[in-house]
Amino acid sequence: xxKGLLIVLSGPSGVGKGTVGNALRKRLPELTYSVSxxxxxxxxxxxxxVNYFFKTREQFLDMIEKDELLEYAEYVxxxxxxxxxxxxxxxxxxxxIFLEIEVQGALKVREKFPEGIFIFLxxxxxxxxxxxxxxxGTETQATIDHRMSVAVDEMNLMQHYDYAVVNDEIDLAxxxxxxxIIAEHCKIR
Amino acid sequence: xxKGLLIVLSGPSGVGKGTVGNALRKRLPELTYSVSxxxxxxxxxxxxxVNYFFKTREQFLDMIEKDELLEYAEYVxxxxxxxxxxxxxxxxxxxxIFLEIEVQGALKVREKFPEGIFIFLxxxxxxxxxxxxxxxGTETQATIDHRMSVAVDEMNLMQHYDYAVVNDEIDLAxxxxxxxIIAEHCKIR
Lengths: 189, 189
Hints:
The structure is a homodimer.
Chain A: E1 6-10, H1 17-27, E2 32-33, E3 36-38, E4 52-54, H2 57-65, E5 69-75, E6 78-83, H3 84-92, E7 97-100, H4 103-112, E8 117-122, H5 126-135, H6 141-155, E9 163-166, H7 170-186
Parallel strand pairs in A: 1-7, 1-8, 2-7, 3-4, 8-9
Antiparallel strand pairs in A: 3-6, 5-6
Helix pairs in contact in A: 1-7, 5-6
């Protein structure tokens, strides 16, 4: 049986990975979506194994120790990571799995799964990205400048990806991602 | 300006290249379709420059001489070929061009355009292909056997292509080809 594909969606912060990822879940319900492990507390309505695998700090450190995570990172005092087991089992069963993660994490996944399909989500323009980063809330100019400089650095990592998809309209971005998945299944390897 | 893509659809005789090509014209009218040159007589309703570029034998031999054809072949006493000029002008203008040709011709085009996207149209099964070859008319068993053996030889050339698309349903085959074109435009080169 042919293995499934690992499809990784990434891109600079503020580009709309989460929004596109959620729209894709509705458009392609037959795709399996990777569930992250985290040490943060469950929020109202979040289910273990659905939204996240909720772990204690000790459990998470143990997963790192045993190389059970494809990548992980710490944000605001909490760990987030991608369990290797779920990804491997899904593709071994011949099903595709979809991963939506940060740029640095995606490059770590690429080291372990060079045969994965790595898609970089692009803003229509840098000005547009600035607007989106600014539009998030009431951050200071210094915070916005810092986030913008991080985003520009992240943009430079695009060259390590297989595909670039412009997030001009969510529907269009989803159609492009769906097309990439269909095309990859037709590829002669 | 980015160049357009050369998209070549080929596959064994009897697989339904023409049917899929025609369905694609309706689905993707914005795509430019290559027009072949031929020495055969125009049929009722056929227009020069639309269905074919109609040429005399002398004109055609002159085009061969001047390397103005990407590929050509002789069938039942008539020449058929792909004018290079039209293909090159279209992609230089940033537009995609679609070519639907025989397996051998496609491989000749690949020599001149290695960066083209080569799609191999597959029958759902060899039995299905046999049925289609048989279903064409009232040929003798020997003719059917010969066509079938040619088709099997042609199938072995699939490895030189980039993509394989199964022609199980015309709509599905068209959707896969459309997806390949969209995905190729997203590819980071």
